[in-house]
Amino acid sequence: MPFTLADGRAELRPTGLILLIGAIGAAVANWLGAPLPFLLGALILVGAWSIWRSAGQPDTAARPVLQTMRKASISLIGVMIGATFSPSLLEQLPQLWLSVLAVIPFVVCTHAASFLIYRRLAGFDAVTAFFAAMPGGLIEAVTLGEAAGADPRVLSTQHFARVVLVIIAIPTAYYLATGIVVGSAAGQAFDATPAGLLDLGEIAVLCGIGIWLGRVLRLPASYMIGPMLLSAIAHGSGVLDVASPRWLLSAAQLVIGAGLGVLFAGSSLRSLARAFGFGCISVAVMLTVAVGFAAILAPWSSLPLIALIISLAPGGVTEMGLVALSLGISPVAVTVHHLFRIVLAVSIAGWALPRLRRTEQTGPS
Known about the structure:
By secondary structure, the protein is an all-alpha fold. The chain contains 15 helices and no strands. Pfam families: AbrB (PF05145).
């Protein structure tokens, strides 16, 4: 049946409650100084509430209003990722060509290793294992995987583990080695440029045209990839220089976190703990490979060893940039590597997906 206005009104109260719970979780996580507080805080508390409320029974409620808001928020994230492609960032590429190219074998190696962990050890189906193993962003991997038919609850858990463990491991290891506090705990920020109404209007236009463009080009997850590519072209060419307000980024992450959290209804704590355990194994492998690649590249790169490790570590773009900023390393250089990692991971996903589906239908050889 088509979704009607009356259905939308009926969804307003439960959607408002979910967002309120997500906001509480985000506020607590932000107060604690947690990484990605608005995304992960909302995901954790809404997820816990959904598990408690469902009492182990699957929740059949579609939550169309919340999921529509989640898609709109994902398009905002796409625009903001694309906005980091400034002319100054592109000017640094000639100096970083060696380490940027090293991202290609790094992504292939870590993706393949994690895929085997989730496919052989965890027993996930091929599509879910593939997207759970993606060394890309949490939002990107879950969005692409969900569109491909993977289990979004599993993907959320695995990438939640990846982002949190990487963000915790690197600053903690550096603190133990040097005694210097880095990353989110240091309270650093990328850009404090205030955003005006014109910036908000340009962001809305980029979202709308980008989603349309993504659909016309039949891009995977068109409501994210389309706006990201359009924004990257506009900012990389110098046509636009949009200031992304921090409150809008926080709000978008809150909605996405809450939207993912409701998908955990019907899950058990045992299944989540099991998934998180395999996530720890995957992250350990990824970080080991990152350190190995960085050690090999260090004598030939213009970046120091710690900068290379941060540039390769499969954490969040923003959080890894914050760590770099705290260490006096150009966050632009780190961002180049991480954006290339995400674009490459998404491209590999698009190429491999039809083959994975055929493998899943015929069974492993």
